[in-house]
Design a protein that fits this description.
By secondary structure, the chain is of the alpha/beta class. The chain has two domains: 2-107, NAD(P)-binding Rossmann-like Domain (Rossmann fold, 3-Layer(aba) Sandwich); 112-204, Regulator of K+ conductance, C-terminal domain (Alpha-Beta Plaits). Helices cover 31% and strands 24% of the residues. It has seven helices and twelve strands. β3, α4 (66-78) and β4 form a beta-alpha-beta unit. The longest helix has 14 residues, at 108-121. The chain is elongated, with a radius of gyration of 23 Å. The model has no long low-confidence stretch (mean pLDDT 85).
């Protein structure tokens, strides 16, 4: 996870220092990623002091061991790092981490489980984004020729707890106005409150005939 995160941050032009305890792995990563790779223990003061922690915007502790992430995060906080983000595998530890002063606690396992659960409950949506812990979701639907929304302008659709925020027509993304026509094959982005998702799904479902 840390390796992938480092790659993403570098691609987005962030300056990254990556600490890896395994010597062979640290050498392998240094050949793959344009970042400062330090072979050392991220829970040790001398290791973290070597990367000028007070100048860092954030430290992310993303190993597979919760206790190592916590210790590394606490050491970083003690050294003056502005923001500390820790990964936890056991969701029961999240509140403990926060009470000990960790700024953000991320549980990929819990997030993935929640994401899969919502996909199962939203089979008509081709994509889904969950906005933190809020009751708002972004869903994406492909318009079928027989769906209730096909052939209508946005102004003809009465939003109740949802908003059409984007329409993909081929490769072009349109920020819709009231006159935007929703056509077969369009990919429509909808911002919806969780309790309004069923209504949105009905809007994009095939219209029963006869």
């Amino acid at each position: 996870m840390g390796r992938h995160l480092a790659r993403v941050l570098v691609e987005n032009r962030h300056e990254v220092a990556l600490i890896e305890k395994d010597r062979d792995l640290s050498q392998e990563i240094s050949r793959e990623i344009d970042a400062l790779v330090i072979n050392g223990d991220g829970t040790q003061l001398k290791t973290l002091e070597g990367v000028n922690p007070k100048t860092a915007d954030a430290l992310v502790a993303a190993t597979g061991k919760d206790e190592i992430n916590l210790l590394s995060g606490l050491v970083a906080k003690n050294l003056g790092v502005k923001m500390v983000i820790c990964r936890v595998s056991n969701p029961e530890y999240k509140e403990v981490f926060k009470k000990l002063g960790i700024d953000y606690v991320i549980s990929p396992e819990v997030t993935a489980a929640e994401y899969i659960d919502r996909i199962i409950r939203r089979p008509s949506a081709i994509d889904l984004a969950i906005l933190g812990k809020s009751d708002v979701e972004i869903l994406e639907f492909v318009v079928d020729k027989d769906s209730r929304i096909a052939g209508k302008e946005v102004k003809e659709i009465s939003p109740k707890g949802f908003l059409i925020i984007g329409v993909h027509k081929g490769r072009e993304l349109i920020i819709p106005t009231g006159k935007t026509l929703i056509e077969e094959g369009d990919e429509v982005l909808v911002l919806a409150k969780t309790n309004s998702v069923a209504e949105v799904e009905r809007l994009f479902a095939k219209e029963e005939k006869g």
